[in-house]
Amino acid sequence: MSRPDQADLPGRTPAWRYAIGMFGTSIPINMIKGSMILYYVDILGLDVRAYGAVMVIYAIIDALDNPLLGHLSDRTRTRYGRRRPWLLVGAPMLAACMIAFFSAPASLEGVGLLVWFAVFAILCEAFDSMLNANYGALLPELYPRERDRAVANGLRQGFQLVALVISLALTPLLTTQVFGTEETTQGFQITAIIYGAVALAVIVFMALGARERPRYSTRERPRLLPSVWSIVSNRLFWTVGLTGSCYGGAMALVLAGIQLYVRYSLGLPVVNAFYLQAVVILFSVAGLAVWTRVVARHGALRAWRLSFAVLAVSFAALFFATDLVTALAAGVLVGAGWSGMLATNDLIVARVLDADAARNGEHREGLFLSAFGFFGRLNGIVTGLALTSLGVFFGYNSGDDPGADPGLAFRVYLCAYPFVLAAIGAVAARIISVPAEPPPEAAQTAEPPAEPVEDPR
Length: 457
Hints:
Layout: H1 15-19, H2 21-43, H3 48-75, H4 84-101, H5 111-142, H6 146-178, H7 186-209, H8 224-232, H9 235-265, H10 273-298, H11 300-319, H12 324-360, H13 365-394, H14 406-431, E1 434-435, E2 454-455
Antiparallel strand pairs: 1-2
Helix pairs in contact: 2-4, 2-5, 2-6, 2-7, 2-9, 3-5, 3-13, 4-5, 4-7, 5-13, 6-7, 6-10, 6-12, 9-12, 9-13, 9-14, 10-11, 10-12, 11-12, 11-14, 13-14
């Protein structure tokens, strides 16, 4: 950890000030991901095949515009820094689009409803990408040492989990009990307005306090095509990116389907998703402190590998849950595995960024993280195809046409599919290696050293 007497040195961003930004960036997108199927498919009656087609298209569009957003951020030169202008523009746009996403006019149906869903789903994801590419790029820049980085990352993941308690666990209660009912949409609109205002205030507060390093943006501006080629020809980009996408895809399925898992697989009112999500998130918060200590003792790579294994086991346990009590017990394991991935995955990616900067003498965190975001955007394809498969295999097409066994359908969606992805990730993580943490002085030099040594840990 950073020494207390260094925490508030001039020019240094306090870890908590940076970390709180994750609270703001997490609330909007996780309400969207956690409630979009319930809102559009189960309540408004959008066909799952149309939903799946939109998710595939928007994932492709987002995968293409994501590197462009990161590259533009890397090339930005203003007296306010490279990242802050994008954060200050993206925050109000995401808030506005989220409110519109959950404000579909009651008169819309068929093609009209599909167009509304597609337009605002794509816009929300685009502005979320803009925010996260710039917010994530600040982590390796503000905290060059892995120990400092681990502390800041642990704090920001803690803030993210607090946001998840609100945007996932609390949302079903607000939308179906406090501001609306299980069959109406008014509660979603009111909740979206509240969340949007909170997210905007937090992101602006974080951005105004982030002290970017001027030396990172004084060099010649990187060119797009050579930079893209350098990244896609990097073996670590593919191995780490694809492995991390197994974790991202698994959790995307869980976040998108948990409310319908509770409704159909456990046979309970949607509001009970609050308890399951709360247990998962609370144990994730507690697990972050444990995993941060594991990283300090054994290194990020070993902890990353172990986290994947725990996550895979947890999905198997959740599959066999038959009521709320057994689901909560399995949720404890999900929280343990998830917190491990939260504590380690970004540290593995940051090592790859460090190695790229050392090798090429350019800091391209925005483009590199956006390129990594390409794998995250595959989550849209995964969730879309997975939901579409429920219609093919189980006859679930919408809330109006749930098929003969929607309980089994969402047990497969929420447990079996994520288990397969996490198991693949666990095997891949055991095989690949990542660069060792550079010494502190290496982070300050502009000269590219020799090829980075791979870390056996």
